[in-house]
Amino acid sequence: MADEGLRPIIIKRVKKPGGGHHGGAWKIAYADFVTAMMAFFLLMWLLGSTTKGNLQGIADYFSTPLKVAMAGGSGSGDATSVIKGGGKDMTRIDGQQKKGEDLTPARNYSLKAAEEELARAEAKRLQVLKDKIEEAIATIPSLQQYQKQLLIDITSEGLRIQIVDEKNRPMFALASAELQPYTKVILHEIAKILNDVPNKVSLSGHTDATPYSSGEKSYSNWELSADRANASRRELVAGGMAETKVLRVVGLSSAVLFDAKNPYNPVNRRISIIVMNKKTEESITKENTEANVADGIEAKQAVDEAVNVSGVVQPGTSQPEQAPQVPLVPATH
């Protein structure tokens, strides 16, 4: 009993970790939860803002991504797709390359449609010019008294302005190409308006069927009509029209009558100013070009035919190697 009283008493103290519910382990779990929720809401937003076709592309991509990437399809290479990449450029170095079906309607460009559109635009421009000339005739005092002598219409060649004679008011002196003072006034006013359009101009002179007094063999209605057309051209240029606008000046005598039933009617004596459309202008320039080319070819053939098979040059011809080369280009006159 004595020994038991001397045995030492050992007290074990267990230290519990401090902090308890104030520890930080819960923060990690909460951060994981927030991250998962953000990913969930982001996924729901993407699914809600994606079209049905792209959703199918996404589903195909996740089921067999390599197949979709190589074969293409809606969503595989489209820059608007949620899943980027696909097509020929897997790395997207050269940008998105859509290999799927292109739903954009193809545009067909027709030369005929373009020409028709240009023709409509030109017809509209000539109509505006016609209205402007008619307004000028109605408002300008110097032209109002000549309304009956100014005839304006649109033909297949373009806008035609005809200045016709009246019984007591001729445009030119009798049997002459000298313009009357009031005819110059008319031409000056028209010249100011013609510069508003880029179209070329053609002038033609006409007479009635009354034969010229000196007869056909010297000076006839053909020469008279041509001189009157050229006199009108000079007056238009003097009135302010650009000289380069004139493409053709012709005299038609009484071949094209205004009043075919009465060849001697004074109205047949007239000047026609045609503001040509593009088709008429091209037909004139093309005809001139083809004529010069044909002349050049015929001249070259004549030189070739002058040389016989043995190489001997016929009298009056030059040596083949020295034969002048005929330029096959349009004349500048």
Short description, anyone?
The protein has 333 residues and is an alpha+beta fold.
Structure commentary:
- This protein has 333 residues and is of the alpha+beta class.
- The protein has two domains: 30-99, no CATH class; 112-276, OmpA-like domain (60s Ribosomal Protein L30, Chain: A, 2-Layer Sandwich).
- 42% of the residues lie in helices and 9% in strands.
- It contains nine helices and five strands.
- It has helices at 2-6, 25-48, 52-63, 65-71, 111-139, 141-144, 181-194, 221-238, 278-305; strands at 150-154, 158-164, 201-206, 246-251, 270-276.
- It has a five-stranded mixed β-sheet with strand order 1-2-5-3-4.
- Strand 1 (150-154) and strand 2 (158-164) form a beta hairpin.
- Helix 5 packs across helix 7 (181-194).
- Residues 74-79, 92-96 and 307-333 have low confidence and may be disordered.
- Residues 86-102 have a biased composition (Basic and acidic residues).
- Residues 80-102, 312-333 are annotated as: Disordered.
- Residues 111-139 form a coiled coil.
- Keywords: Cell membrane, Cell projection, Cilium, Coiled coil, Flagellum, Membrane, Transmembrane, Transmembrane helix.
- Residues 159-279 form the OmpA-like domain.
